[in-house]
């Protein structure tokens, strides 16, 4: 049922709407739940020219091209927030957060021609990337 | 309109359902969109005893208590995936990913009694945390 709900949720607006309409899917609660087995891919980019607004904009342009890759469930492009405590890493310039249904979908993304093209065209912009891949416990 | 849609989406199942039913809100597309101004708080924990399944379970228990804090929009507890490349950081044991509507909501969370209690009761378990706070570009 949980799995089915998610599929409806992401793939079928009408079914979702009907389920919601009849009180079967409290959206607010669902949004906080872990989705077992899902895959979180979070990449942080350190630019070669960290002060260059142009380079940052270019990287963001490149990441935006990736959003169309099919199995991506959620994609967010971020930059460091204004928070500043000892434990907070603020040295990166761009954050790239993706959700996938599973490891296999993430591999489809990695090998996708659009992704390979992105690496080819934009990797000259960054000095370092750190990737955190995690799965729900 | 964008802001309104989000509020409906998260807070009002019936309105969402009706909007979706009449084709106003394509859920599948929405799920991939950036939500301007939103706040992503991602914490990675390195345990003092990285091999201890008991300590990891205890930390997960503690994080689970935090999920009820009101302004949290999404909460996910993760562990490193099986992926293994040079750029992937796999040294941490637990990932804690939260979405908030904005910086202010994240501050409510930081100062919430349940959060302070969590730090008091569970911080002995970890050796290091790294926090990445980001906002959508």
UniProtKB/TrEMBL annotation, chains A, B:
Keywords: Signal. It holds the Pfam family Dabb. PROSITE patterns: S_R_A_B_BARREL, TAT. Residues 1-27 form the signal peptide. SMART domains: Dabb (SM00886). InterPro entries: Dabb (IPR013097), Dimeric_a/b-barrel (IPR011008), TAT_signal (IPR006311). Residues 39-134 form the Stress-response A/B barrel domain. The keyword Transmembrane does not apply. This is Stress-response A/B barrel domain-containing protein. The lineage of its organism: Bacteria, Pseudomonadati, Bacteroidota, Cytophagia, Cytophagales.
